[in-house]
Amino acid sequence: MLLERIHHVAYAVEDIDAALPELIERYGMRVGIRERMEEQGVEAVALDVGPDRLELIQPIDPEGSVARFLERRGPGLHHVGYAVGDLDAALEELRSAGAELIDERPRRGLGGHMIAFVHPHSAGGVLTELVQSERSGRHGDRT
Amino acid sequence: MLLERIHHVAYAVEDIDAALPELIERYGMRVGIRERMEEQGVEAVALDVGPDRLELIQPIDPEGSVARFLERRGPGLHHVGYAVGDLDAALEELRSAGAELIDERPRRGLGGHMIAFVHPHSAGGVLTELVQSERSGRHGDRT
Description:
The structure is a homodimer.
Chain A: E1 3-12, H1 16-26, E2 30-37, E3 42-49, E4 52-59, H2 65-73, E5 76-84, H3 87-96, E6 107-108, E7 114-118, E8 128-132
Parallel strand pairs in A: 1-4, 5-8
Antiparallel strand pairs in A: 1-5, 2-3, 3-4, 6-7, 7-8
C-alpha cells in the first residue's frame, strides 16, 4: 500500500466552539465543513490550513471512544488521516498482512469521504485513518 | 499569523529502528534525513509520505521531554509542525498576544529548518512546532 499524503490531523476537544476562536484568530485557519456524525459519536469541523486540513472532534456520545480518550488523556492529538488511492485494496492488503483494523469495511467520514481506521498497534503506535483519495491531483477532493 | 500548511506530524517511539520497517514496507513511506539532535535529547528521522512528512523521534536523553512523554503516555502522536512565512514575526505576535512559548527564539530543527515550539495551552491543546518556510512554492524547502 502507498500512502499518498497526509489528508488531515485531528484534535480531540471538549468543546469545538470554545476551541475555534484561537485557531481562527491566532493561527489564521479557515472554517470548512461541520457535521454531527452520530455513528462515530462525535461532532467534527474541518479547518483549512492552506492546502491542508485540521479536524476538531468533540464527543456527543459520552460512552464513545473520543469521550473516553478525553477522560483518559485530555484534549490533544487524536489521529492522523492519510489519503490512499484504493481504500478497499489497502484494507485487504492490511488484513492479509495480519494488521489490526478498526473498520473492516470503508464507511462514511467527514464531508462524505470514504474512510477506515487502523489500530495504533498496526500503524506505528498512532490511530490512523485511511481516506479514499478521489482524484489524481493534490487536494482536488476538497472541492 | 498565518499557518501556511502542515509541515510534518511527529510520532514518539521507543526505538526508531524497530518502528521503521512497518512504516516503510506496509505503508510505502520513504526514509529521508536522520539526525541525532543532542540539544533536544532525541534522535529523529524524516519519512516522506508523498509530498508530506512524518517524523519519528526517539529519546536519547532519559531525562528529556520525549522520554517523559513515552513514560507517561507510551508511543504515539507527539506534535504537529506547521510552516509559517516569517517565524520571528510569528513568535513576536504570539508573545504579544500572551501565548505560552516553549522556545522564545527560533532554533535549529531536523534538517536545518529554523523552528520554535508553542505550548499546547496556546495552540488548541496540541504541542505545536512552527517551521520557517524557506520558499514561496510548496515543498521547495525540502530539496
